[in-house]
Design goal:
Elements: H1 2-13, E1 31-37, H2 41-54, E2 59-62, E3 78-79, H3 86-100, H4 102-106, E4 117-121, H5 124-139, E5 145-147, H6 149-155, E6 171-175, E7 179-180, H7 183-196, E8 200-202, E9 207-213, E10 216-222, E11 225-234, H8 240-245, E12 254-263, E13 273-276, E14 281-285, E15 291-295, H9 309-322, E16 331-341, E17 348-351, E18 357-361, H10 371-384, H11 398-401
Parallel strand pairs: 1-2, 1-11, 2-8, 4-13, 11-18
Antiparallel strand pairs: 3-7, 4-6, 5-6, 9-10, 10-11, 12-15, 12-16, 13-14, 14-15, 17-18
């Protein structure tokens, strides 16, 4: 213990100059088998599973800034798989199963905590929809329970849920296997594991364009030079439509700020994730004791990572209606991530009109929870030049055929 404390102090005083790097500081090579544009959780997971499951080792992950400081570091870390439609339930459930073994898989503590996710119902309409969703989930083999008002009160004794409250609770839907994880640990764990398998992680390498020859993508232009590739996958949450415009591809996506707040740390009082769609607020308590509080996305299209103050007012008003005990808490910091939203609130994963250029985008507010599953199926897709069976219906062609996967109602709060 004494040696550990001395080592910690020595490294702290030296600015961590002697700490070993978790992943190699790679330089951009002239060519690769696969280039992944976007070094967030999904991009790093894709590279890891490409190397581990498919033996592809000549891979580059390009990130315009440092790893983990994009949307991966700007979310509320909720993990669940209780989506309504068959396609979504299968994909998110596959991801949740990967979450359950991810720390062991990566030999890195992702701090995945299966504390449960509870969606509250305040109206008869919400209750009926929850009953419908729970039935669909059980048919798809996804765990789900419906709680009575009395059972909700036993789970959440701090909740103002009586008939005299402004929003009396009529019931709730619970997924006990859901919970939270540590967002930066997920990015760092995948980065370290991918790098150990030979993947080049090239930070501070912004994409400036694609090289397209004869209708096929041949490589990328970046701020650190040109690199050729046999296949390219774009995984740039928050800016997918901007990036794909460089290749002349127009995506049915709009980008919105999604805000969150963190309170000062307090003793453990909230043992689950609580979502309240009617009042536009959801919250959990972090391992450090902070309340992590989310809300509906902003209503305007923007790439500003700060959001608007009236959304904060609305979410705090809803929080205090449900939990008056938190009225004296101070908020410590606020941020916004940029979410790419499709017309049916489901992701786009598959081919683009440019041959050998693939897209993984449009996850909206569900991106973090899908990280392992998204990387797993996208890696399979890039390795085999064919969509994974779980994502066959998530391609761009659904916006032509009309076979949409409408998951707008499955968001934790109104989006």
């Amino acid at each position: 213990m004494r040696y550990s404390l001395l080592a910690l102090a020595r490294n702290a005083l030296s600015g961590h100059a002697h700490w070993p790097r978790a992943w190699r500081a790679a330089e951009l090579k002239r060519s690769y088998d696969v280039i992944i544009v976007g070094g967030g959780g999904h991009g790093l997971a894709t590279a890891y599973y490409l190397a581990k499951n498919h033996g592809v080792r000549n891979i580059a992950v390009l990130e315009r800034g440092p790893i983990g400081l994009g949307n991966t570091g700007r979310n509320t870390t909720v993990v669940r798989s209780n989506y309504l439609w068959d396609d979504s339930a299968a994909l998110y459930e596959h991801s949740l199963k990967l979450w359950e073994g991810l720390s062991r898989e990566l030999n890195y503590n992702t701090m995945f905590s299966q504390r449960g996710v509870m969606n509250l119902a305040f109206t008869r309409h919400e209750l009926v929809e929850m009953e419908r969703r729970c039935g669909a989930l059980l048919l798809n083999g996804v765990d789900c329970e419906l709680l009575t008002p009395a059972e909700v009160r036993r789970w959440l004794p701090l909740l103002a849920s009586g008939e005299s409250s402004r929003y009396p609770v009529l019931g709730a839907l619970v997924q006990r296997r859901g919970g939270t994880a540590r967002h930066d640990a997920v990015a760092w764990g995948y980065a370290r594991a991918a790098s150990a398998l030979g993947v080049d992680i090239v930070e501070h390498c912004a994409l400036t364009g694609f090289r397209i020859e004869g209708g096929r993508v041949a490589g990328v232009e970046t701020t650190r030079g040109h690199s050729a590739a046999a296949r390219i996958g774009v995984v740039t949450a928050g800016h997918s439509s901007v990036v794909m415009q460089m290749a002349g591809v127009r995506l049915p996506i709009q980008s919105f700020p999604l805000q969150a707040l963190v309170s000062e740390p307090i003793k453990p009082v909230l043992h689950t994730v609580v979502m309240a769609g009617l009042v536009h607020v959801y919250l959990s308590q972090s391992d450090k004791g902070e309340l992590v509080i989310g809300a509906a996305r902003d209503s305007y299209v923007s790439y500003a990572q700060r959001g608007s103050f009236h959304i904060i007012e609305e979410q705090l008003r809803g929080l205090l209606e449900l939990f008056p005990i938190f009225s004296r808490l101070r908020m410590m910091r606020q941020w916004a991530g940029i979410v790419d939203v499709t017309p049916d609130a489901s992701p786009i994963i598959g081919r683009t009109p440019v041959r050998d250029l693939w897209i993984n985008a449009g996850w909206g507010t569900g991106g973090f929870k899908a990280t392992p599953g998204s990387g797993f199926v996208f890696a399979h897709t890039l390795a085999n030049n064919e969509p994974h069976p779980l994502i066959r219906n998530f391609g761009l062609d659904r916006f032509v055929s009309g076979r949409l996967i409408d998951e707008a109602a499955a968001a934790g709060v109104a989006h």
